[in-house]
Amino acid sequence: MADTATRAGLQLRSTVKKEGIVEISIAEVPTQEPKPDEVVVRIEASPINPSDQGLLFAGADLSTARRSGTADRPIVTATVTPAVMRSVAGRLEQSLPVGNEGAGVVVQAGSSPAAQALMGKTVAILGGAMYAQYRCIKAVQCLVLPAGTTPAEGADCFVNPLTALGMVETMRREGHKALVHTAAASNLGQMLNKICLVDRVALVNIVRKPEHVDLLKKIGAAYVCNSSSPTFMDDLVDALSDSGATVAFDAIGGGRLAGQILTAMEIAASKTAKEYSRYGSTIHKQVYIYGGLDRGPTEFNRAFGMAWGIGGWLLTAFMQKIGLEAAQKLRERVAAEIKTTFAATYTKEVSLAEALGIDEIAVYSKQATGQKYLINPNKGLR
Amino acid sequence: MADTATRAGLQLRSTVKKEGIVEISIAEVPTQEPKPDEVVVRIEASPINPSDQGLLFAGADLSTARRSGTADRPIVTATVTPAVMRSVAGRLEQSLPVGNEGAGVVVQAGSSPAAQALMGKTVAILGGAMYAQYRCIKAVQCLVLPAGTTPAEGADCFVNPLTALGMVETMRREGHKALVHTAAASNLGQMLNKICLVDRVALVNIVRKPEHVDLLKKIGAAYVCNSSSPTFMDDLVDALSDSGATVAFDAIGGGRLAGQILTAMEIAASKTAKEYSRYGSTIHKQVYIYGGLDRGPTEFNRAFGMAWGIGGWLLTAFMQKIGLEAAQKLRERVAAEIKTTFAATYTKEVSLAEALGIDEIAVYSKQATGQKYLINPNKGLR
Description:
Two copies of one chain form a homodimer. In chain A, the strands form four sheets. In chain A, strands 3, 7, 8, 9, 10, 19 and 20 form a seven-stranded mixed beta sheet that branches. The first copy, chain A, is an alpha/beta fold and about 375 residues long. Chain A has 13 helices and 20 strands. The first copy, chain A, is globular. Chain A is about 30% helix and about 30% strand. The interface of A and B includes residues 277, 299, 300 and 308 of A. β17 (about 295-300) of chain A pairs antiparallel with β17 (about 295-300) of chain B.
């Protein structure tokens, strides 16, 4: 039955200090007593997504990371450059919890029937502060996982699956007929390939390594272009001509790739033009930057006419824009296909203290394909 | 009465040759016989707008410009680099007429009453091939200038006035309440200031020289920021906070300015934020690039959250989007205010042959503020 004692639990916190460092530590915090419509979830799995690392590390220079404190309660500090300090001014001296999403077991429930019905169930939740042993949350925010699903299997129910679905939905709503994705061998990229195969949408995958071409071909990808190949631009133009893709979702952000994609789209579009226009094709070409794997500046030479756009794309803004009903449909699809289309794979499961190991940080902060970590905040503590 | 003899006239032509040069010359071409609904305009004034120079020079390296031919029929050639050749592939070996807009006197008219009614009138026209002694065009495309208006006064009735009006209209339609303009001391920029004063719209002007600050202040500009000042970013943030501008129109294109504007908009937006969001403010910030005074690459560091966009803005695409009726309203406003709000100033009036002088090209191709040329294709020929 319900364990109604107020319990304390460990929680990861990140603070940007005014002297120009980020300090990441583990605090013992009391767990909120659930209100009638709330439950307490014992978190057993929470992924370290790229979208978590911005809040976690505050853009710090991780080559300066140092660990102090004890084995159980480590403290990591790293230098934040003055330029980056400006962009994180809004969080100065605030001790912030981290972790967008996770999954676990409901161990305490408020008095309402909806909350009580969740006792003992394995659920997935979204809402921040997931790098913690316990998380108090509204019952209505819990996505009950199908029977037989482990917390690790359900940990990534929101960010990657909804982002992948959101890309296809954005493509449709903005009148494009096919799409491009970069860093395409990622967990998210593999999900997107599975969605596009089922939905019969043409997807042009851009990867950076030959082995990632093979990986995607194996799961059925029709178009895979390797940006490190000398024939990349020609390959991309061919794939864009063939697929008709005029919108791209870019996880890289920095460097020249966004501009190369627009240039290739323009070359593909001009192939069908009847007469020369000095302002280029009238077909709108769009790149949405949704990540920042390359934190350097974005650079492009505007060799793609005048009908183009580059902009930010954020899942939460997209979900708000489409409205509750459309958003709920996407969530239901994720739950139904969590072990197939939306299955994620992880390199390693770590405790909160292990996640603050300098060697571990060096690995997962690279956000390299196939190097995704899962935090189990209760690992070794039960 | 109508002069019905088919006449020949000089016309400026630009050709990109496959060996990697642009060749600009003056051809004698027969003037089309007007159909019933057409008229022939003797062009007496046509501005060299930045938007004309792309077609005229094809992005050639003008430091390599050489003049040959005769004094009356000069030929200018200049090298087009391989990178640029790729972007102008669609016009290879085509001899293209140049000149978006102009004004002159109707000297021949088709049989329809509408065409006949224009005989002898001074009209402004848009439609290309204006760097020519004569231009045959549909009567309905002629904007009759108010009595007492000279062709020089009416030469710039379309591109700059409609672009300036289009910016304010885009601002309104996309839900912004104030706007930013770069290269703001230009003819276009001064028109935009006059429009915004009349319409009571807050406008943040960005210029590159102290004397341009004075110029704009004198015509009543409330916000003028000098991008070469060491306090530029702080000045810009203050102006954006005060005005609430969240959309910018950028004539520069290359370099870091577009990104600086978005960064300053984000800092201004964050000042009113209630709590820290790692994804930045939720207020959409937009920069439209409508020119390329700096032909170098565009570079930005994405230090402005996720709610942002950069894109191309093109007058013809905008006019199509808003529809005939709205477009006609804008045109009528221009005609009514051609000697006040939309008055343009020119440095020099040149003939077609003079426009192909190497020294003249060196001046007007810089597109510097206060160095705007007017071509009179009939200068010295009548």
